[in-house]
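FYI - complex with 1,3-dihydroxyacetonephosphate, inputs then prediction.
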Amino acid sequence: MPIVPMREMLADALKENYAVGYFESWDQCSLEAVLEAAEDSRSPVILGFGGASVNMEWFDKRGLYLLASLGRTATEDSKVPVSLMLNEVPFMEQIRRGIALGFNAVMLDTSHLPIEKNIRFTKQAVNIAHSAGADAEGECGRLPDASGSGINHAGSATDPEEAARYAEETGIDALAVSAGNVHIDMNGKNRIDTALLSKIREKVHIPLVLHGGTSIAEEDIPEVIRLGVAKFNVGTVLKEIFLTTIIELGPSADDGKVQQIVGSRKRCDMFETAKNRIKAEVMRRMILYGSTGKA
Ligand code: 13P
């Protein structure tokens, strides 16, 4: 199935009152898990990779190229509509290269900058994306970040007026907001400030995005979708599942089974088990987001 523009996928979701997941992959195992979950769920999905926590030397030298090749192959092979996103990269050059390598949705990570600079750099990224037929997401306001011990920085909630100006002046296709959601948090059930979200919605009519999908309180999901959220970004929970599986199954590689446990793709392969567990979590979330059966 051909790759689909993210803006079309999100417009359909808004119209039909569901949301699409961007499930952030980091390698072939995680990418296959997301793609298989989407196919088995008959769900549209946003595949892709992020730049927020990767080693930039590796990423710029070979990583971006290899990940893009994997992503492109997955989109060509897909049985359901997919977009391919390059998420939260810090440099404009990576936006340019990513689009040239086949990503059809991008996000430059500039939400930490003062609003004027955030607008200026986002607008540049939008121009690069749109001139190549790709879509761009931007973020106004900043999510708190819970990586490490405790919340590393408090973030700042999205201001509705500022968000309206940001969306208007940059021309972004989707707006990520900070309204109670927290990045990289496994512990909490973070409640979304729906009063704030509805004020943002009164002023911004493009699809809204909630990052920090791992820890958003599940009971809030139907209401935030009703208020215009058409995309959830989910990352940490997938890595957590991967890691706990490898910790659980890794030690049995010691008793002479290494060829079976690593890379055989049989049921005893720990990466295959990790893939299937990630896939199950993605399928569970597709039901929550309402995208199951929409492809
Ligand atoms: P989590 O890792 O908290 O799920 O957030 C992912 C994300 O927002 C990627 O952009």
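Residues 24, 50, 87-88, 183-185, 211-215, 233-236 surround 1,3-dihydroxyacetonephosphate (CB under 6 Å). The radius of gyration is 19 Å.
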